[in-house]
Amino acid sequence: MSLFRTELRRLTKRRFTRYMTLLGLLVLAVVVVGVFFTNQKIGADQLAKAERQAEQDYRQQVVRTDQERASCEQAKKAGTATDGRYPDDCSMITPPPRESFEARWFLPSTFNFRETFDETLIPFAATLALVGFIVGASFVGAEWSTGGMMNLLLWRPKRLTVLLTKLAALLTGILAVTLPAAVLWFAGFWAVASFRGSTEKMTSGAWQSFALTGLRGVALVLVLTTIGFALASLGRHTAMALGGVVAVMVVFQFGLGILLEMANVKFAEAWLLPTYALAWMTKTVTLQNWDSCNATYFGSCEPETMDITWQQSSVLFSIGVVVILGAALWAMRRRDIS
Amino acid sequence: MPAVLEIEGLRKTYKSRRRGTRNALDGFDMRVDAGQVHGFLGPNGSGKTTTLRTLLGLIRPDGGRMTLLGHEVPDALPTVAGQVGAIVESPQFFPHFSARDTLSLLAGAGEVPQARVDEVLELVGLRDRAGERVKTYSLGMKQRLAVASALLKNPKLLILDEPANGLDPGGIREMRTLMRTLAESGMTVLLSSHILGEIQLICDSVTIISLGRRVAFGPVDEVLAQHSSGAVRVRLEAVSDLPAATDALTRAGIRVTGHPDHLMLADVDKPASVTRLLAEHNLYVSELAPIAVDLESVFLELTATAPVPGQHRQVDESMKVGGTGQPGTTGGGWGA
Prior knowledge:
The complex is a heterodimer. In chain A, a hairpin with a 5-residue loop joins β3 and β4 (301-309). Chain A has helices spanning 2-13, 15-37, 44-78, 113-145, 148-155, 159-196, 204-235, 238-262, 273-282, 310-334; strands at residues 111-112, 197-198, 284-295, 301-309. Chain A has a two-stranded parallel sheet with strand order 1-2. Chain A has a two-stranded antiparallel ribbon with strand order 3-4. The radius of gyration of chain A is 28 Å and the shape is elongated. The longest helix of chain A has 38 residues, at 159-196. Chain A folds into two domains: 2-41 and 110-334, no CATH class; 44-106. In chain A, 29% of the residues are buried. Chain A is mainly α. By secondary structure, chain B is α/β, with parallel strands linked by helices. Chain B has two domains: 3-225, Rossmann fold; 229-290, Alpha-Beta Plaits, CATH 3.30.70. Helices cover 31% and strands 26% of the residues of chain B. Chain B contains eleven helices and 14 strands. The chains are: A mainly alpha, B alpha/beta. The A-B interface holds A 2-3, 5-7, 9-10, 13-15, 142-143, 146-148, 150-158, 334, 336-338 and B 53, 56-60, 74, 77-78, 81, 84, 86, 88, 91-97, 101, 105-106, 108-111, 149, 153.
């Protein structure tokens, strides 16, 4: 327990941890503030203004159509070539019906909590997962590269206990930031919705769904933190984790993406990691193969689809964590420390 | 005296596809008795640090036995770690923490009272600079901090690898005094160093390692005596008598090397016999001085690392026990 407390103290004492956490929270605060200022509450004034705007647009369209029809008839009379610009019958040029200009198109952006909040949990989880990954990698990587790990092992010569205690302290620290941040995120967007949108139709089912998405976001943060920690421990340097992530992104994401695209592989996104992260957060990602055609009863063509579910993502992430953390523990146990 | 550290037949081999196999430790033996300051000497790359790292569980040995404070290691390291303070190689600390934070975190991890932090900071002379970040420290100050971290546990065995590295002359003297004070308080100190004059001054006993094997060990005086050449310098009242003296001594079976104003005699067991012999030939001695050896010359002889004009010795070019010029050993203990 003393080792755990000490490691927690070490984590919070590190300036890099503080700055990265602050930066992450700042980014999240900027998002909330940005959403606040780019949304408005819809009232009678906004509705009336939108109606006026719709009417104005409709009238402009009518004038434009009249001008176009007149030009068409003039061209027909003069017998000048129109290069297919006008139809044979100029009376076919008519303005769109009035009902095509819906007032809601002209409403300012508004934040509907029930419809939009779960989407905001994706950048929330992504930001804190990035912070967790970098802090986790640096926490153990710097210990290795500055000799701190060796010093610690002279005091506590149980290698696996030391590494796992460090990881436990790191995850506790990340959780201690993520959970209050999640509460503030909920509260922040509730405030945004209250002042710049709507909090209507929030049933207990909707709350439960948001809570579960939030929990999956927290789990994603912990998974990426663990992977950053394990990669840096494996390479005994922070750069190993950061370099590894760049390599994965460049080679396995962009490179693989281009390769799969060139090879016309069906559902190429199914091979890319971000798809699974998205599926984890949104429960399902439906991929579409636009090269295929499934005829419908109405004669239209529907693309072939493939669902990536959060369960599949959970299996992938579990395997990733077990393999990478397992390798880090194995290396910690077996490799000489010099 | 009971041994606090015993090593028998320790082996560590590094295998590399490119560089082949290298025996860093090749059946190394060592014994350190309780309450002693023991010097651990060897040329660069001879296996000193590998030995210390292996002993402390940082490197896995390929063979041999080790005990610390009577417990087999590395299995019993968790049991004895609290009684062994160590610094290995150059001091390494997280650069952005202060000395006090560094020690405080170590004390926390080792369940040592926080009050001990200030005690050791005072002891190594860092009290007034303890709040500054380690990255602002000089090498000597980092060295002091490393010693402080090793002393934090108030250990029974203190293992220090090059503790005087980077210290100023005053610091070296303070370190020497500290070592002696600690030994007098009952702490056993194992000191690895290249400053042989310091070792000779501080240490009760030494072990010399070369190419992964022990080439000499025992009390410092005995090691020096064992490797004393028995050389004696002789001056006579009249320089003109030197040829006659050379003739008389050579006939008596003594190897003589002539110099313009004196003679050097080799392998002389009893210098008094030289006086008597020359007096019998009416040759009168004005100076008869046994040539003392120091640890440096013994070290250079045993490890064959003395510089040769015009040659550039490579790191692994040193003496291996059992090779040409096999030195004798003194003392007792495991593997003796």
